[in-house]
Specification:
Radius of gyration: 20 Å
Bound molecules: 5'-O-[(R)-(carboxyoxy)(hydroxy)phosphoryl]adenosine, zinc ion
Strand content: 15-25%
Number of helices: 11
Length: 339
């Protein structure tokens, strides 16, 4: 029987305090997430100082729960995986300090994980057949990356956003049309009642980067449209604006993914990150993949948004490749993928 490598994973890069136990990178034994969303909703977005303080309050409890849900103790753990970037520095530091403390006290090896590598690896948990190489679109509140996963731990970034991340655009547009924070799920919900062809918003292209994205122009187009309606005294139809905006984002994401699948001759395509839980985007991607004869992978919504199980999956492949972090591991807020 294959030896079980049990990883305790910790994630605290933004507004979720999370811990999980993952065996051999794929078998999720527990996945505990303490979300601060209600707290930040009062301010219309994540307040970094509040996030750090809440992480400190919650982290021990979340780790104890993750161990107990998995029916293990620290003595059973083979390695600790922790997100060390990118993210909010004060938030990341809580997880990193905690992971180092446990590693030092119990003599358990430590592995530093890139948050985006975690999002990509979320796909391994529910898809036992998924192995590199594959193409992955990571769309979250802070990132929009089109990545070729050449091998475990080997990433080639084909494209990225030049300005706003896809999730950020959802959040900003939601605020502008009076839906509040977090915008993604709210836009998706009202879009069901809207006409996606009601308003012709732009599909931005980046002239010198075929796989790069730009969402700030789309956001401005929505704001201009809202302004125009106001000047003309016209009532906006919230659901139509939401659905038209969502369609514009979806079209751009699908077109980029489709072009990269062709150019790089990929037969597997995965999505990841908070925005990947959007049903309209998933359906459009599934359809595109079906037309191209490409296998489509996506995590369950709970594994799309920030969680620690994805960090445990990524940490396993780093661990078996011999990667270890020392007691000098630090939070790196602008950590690049592949560094
Ligand atoms: O991956 P994530 O939890 O955190 C980051 O690493 O950024 O992603 C959060 C982002 C937010 O911008 C949120 O509005 C967006 O994901 N999001 C969605 C949906 N659910 C979450 N965007 C579109 N549709 C959704 N259903
Ligand atoms: Zn994330």
């Amino acid at each position: 029987m294959e030896k079980e490598i049990k990883i305790l994973a910790i994630e605290s890069s933004c507004d979720e305090t999370a811990a999980a136990v993952v065996v051999n990178g794929r078998d999720m034994r527990s996945n505990v997430i303490s979300s601060q969303i209600d707290l930040h909703t009062l301010y219309g977005g994540v307040v970094p100082e509040i996030a750090s303080r809440k992480h400190i309050e919650k982290i021990n409890q979340v780790i104890e729960q993750a161990l107990s849900d998995a029916g293990v103790t620290l003595d059973d753990i083979d390695a600790i995986g922790v997100t060390y970037g990118p993210g909010l520095v004060g938030a990341l530091l809580v997880g990193v300090a905690e992971a180092k403390a446990i590693s030092f006290a119990k003599g358990i090896p430590l592995v530093g994980v890139h948050h985006i590598e975690g999002h990509i690896s979320a796909n391994y948990i529910e898809n036992p057949d998924l192995e590199p190489p594959f193409l992955c679109l990571v769309v979250s509140g802070g990132h929009t990356h089109l990545v070729k996963v050449a091998d475990y731990g080997e990433y080639v970034i084909l494209g990225r956003t030049r300005d706003d991340a896809a999730g950020e655009a959802f959040d900003k547009v939601a605020r502008a049309i009076g839906l509040g924070y977090p915008g993604g799920p709210k836009i998706e919900k009202v879009s069901h009642e809207g006409n996606p062809d009601a308003v012709a918003f732009p599909r931005a292209k980046v002239a010198d980067g075929v796989y790069d994205f730009s969402f700030s122009g789309l956001k401005s187009a929505v704001l201009n449209y809202l302004n125009g309606c106001k000047m003309k005294g016209e009532q906006i139809v919230q659901a139509d604006v939401a659905a038209s905006f969502q369609k514009s984002v979806t079209d751009v994401l699908v077109e980029h993914a489709a072009n990269a699948i062709e150019q790089y001759h990929m037969d597997k395509f995965a999505i990841a990150g908070g925005v990947a839980s959007n049903g309209t985007i998933r359906q459009a991607m599934a359809l595109m993949c079906e037309e191209k004869g490409v296998k489509f992978y996506h995590p369950s919504p709970i594994l799309c948004t920030d969680n620690a199980a994805m960090i445990g999956a990524a940490a396993y492949y780093d661990f078996i490749a011999g990667k270890r972090a020392g007691m000098d591991l630090n939070a790196v807020p602008n950590l690049k993928l592949g560094e």
